[in-house]
Amino acid sequence: MTNPEPSRQEGKMPQGYDDRTEPPAPTFGDAVRYLWDRRVRLAKYFLGLLALGVVATLAWSFSRERVAEATLSLGFKGIEKGEYPNGRKFAIADIRGPKVLQKAVQEIGKEKNFPAVDMVVRGIQVQPVIPGEIQARWKIQDRAGTKREDYFPSNFMITARPKGMTPEESVQLLYALLQAYQQDVKNEQLGALKFMGEVSRYKPDELIRLYDYWDLPRILGENVATLKDHLRELTDEAKDFRDPKFNVSFQDLEQDLSVWSSTRLESLRGLVDGDRLVKNRDSMVKRLQARQEQLDIQIRGVTQELLEATKLLETVDRPRTTLVGPMSGKDGLPVIDTNALDRLVASDYTSAVVKRVTKLQEKKTKLQEAQWAAERDLALLAKAHDVLLENLPPTFGRDLGVLTTDLARILDTYNKLLSSYLDATVTSQVTLRDGPRVVRLGPSTVMVLAGIVFVCAALALLLLIVDQSVQASMHRKRS
Q: Which residues, in sequence order, are CB contacts of 313 under 8 Å at separation 6+?
């Protein structure tokens, strides 16, 4: 007999087997349909949260402290090296220095409310503005463990809100601070370039009484040489500047000074040398001999410096073999110091050394000329005799008076022209690139609102998911 059980058993499924198919994984379209079906509730959550966020942001924004803010830009000569035009080191503290702040407070009429500068300086912050490319290079250098490259900022962010001042008064303070610092920078340059020689301090009869007659041409010549250096520098820097009030330029003054030297000064020197006009011959000879010794020492020192600088120039001009290290690589090839190569490419060493050699050569030439002049004076004084004041030729006092009068006129014109030039240029060298304006401390309100929108959208979605989970759980409990 056949047994029907096997066929029946074949129809049975193993215990624990579920023949239902698994649901497919949710897709992005399912998520979009899920949100679209519940869009009204999602919008309610989002708008409710957004309203609360906007109200909180506006309340926070209006409660922030209001301060005056401006960006100061410096463009005077030397700031790229962190120096003033006269060579003095620049410091950020100079922008809010005691004298500058005192002038600024007086300018806005608040000296009674702020008798001490310390009350104002605590409310003013100055921060350098570092360009993004410099910061990026600094980060690379920090990661490489190398020294950061030198950078001297020329732009500075200033925020001001001294205690006891309104934001509007702080804006006025920044304007006054700019004007006071402009005057301070002008005084720095004026102090470096303004000329005050013996002619400006003494009258002709005082010069005759204070100095030996033999010394007067040399002293006046040294004063003129210093003034010529100033004029040469200013002529290159301000070749297009002409004072509208005096209708004169630095080129004009340079020509006047050259004419004065070749006529007035040479005339006085010829009179002194020809008549052997000396007040105390023995004392003058001793001083000239001591001067010769000093000049000889200085010439030897400059010659040694010039020799070392020339050797350095030859080293800099050599091929890149000086950048090869003593160690060798795996293939026996020399190791190149790439950092030294980069620094050499970035810095024009040759130009700096050439300038130094040129300056040393000029200095040596001037010292040699002074030494020859001292030798000539000693030869002339060998046959000279002391001349009393009453025995001076009448032409000496007259020529000295004309000479000093003309030179004093040139010096006075130079100082007035220099002041006028600095007035015209400092306003463009110390400027406010941005501001001043009243701002609120902290991040931008627009950026905060953008963050609030993002957070509200995320919270609204989270609330929707939580709400659906709670409803599904309650529905299961009821069923």
A: 350, 353, 354, 357
Whole-number Å distance between alpha carbons of 454 and 188: 54
Q: Show the tokens assigned to 55.
A: 């109200």
Please give the Cα distance from 312 to 358 (Å, whole number).
Answer: 13
Per DSSP, what are the bridge partners of residue 278?
386
Residue range 450-465, pLDDT digits in tens:
888 888 888 888 888 8
Q: In the block, which residue shows the tokens 């020859």?
A: 372
- 377 vs 15, 385, 457, CA distance in Å? 131, 13, 95
State the Cα–Cα distance between residues 359 and 351, nearest whole angstrom: 12
The model's pLDDT over 387-404, given as tens digits with 9 standing for 90+, comes to 888 888 888 888 888 888
Closest of 258, 210, 221, 227 to residue 377, by C-alpha: 221
pTM: predicted TM-score of the whole model, two decimal places? 0.60
In 3D space, the residue among 274, 246, 209 whose CA is nearest the CA of residue 412 turns out to be 246
Other Cβ atoms within 10 Å of 242 Cβ, number: 16
DSSP 12-28: SPPTT---SPPPPPP-H
CA end-to-end span of the chain, whole Å?
52
Amino acid (1-letter code) at residue 258: S
Burial of 332 (0-12, 13-18, 19+ CB in 10 A): exposed
Least confident of 95-99, 254-258, 435-439, 441-445: 441-445
Torsional class of 16: left (φ above 0), alpha (ψ -120 to 50), beta (otherwise): left
Q: What is the C-alpha to C-alpha distance for residues 40 and 57, in angstroms, rounded to an integer?
A: 25
Residue 155 sits at the vertex; the CA angle it makes with 144 and 234, to the nearest 5 degrees, is 110
Residue ranges of the domains in the chain?
A: 66-193, 198-324+335-431
Query: Which residues lie below 8 Å from residue 409, measured CB to CB, with a gap of 6+?
Result: none
Tell how strand 334-336 and strand 66-74 pair up: unpaired
Cα 259 from Cα 370, distance rounded (Å): 22
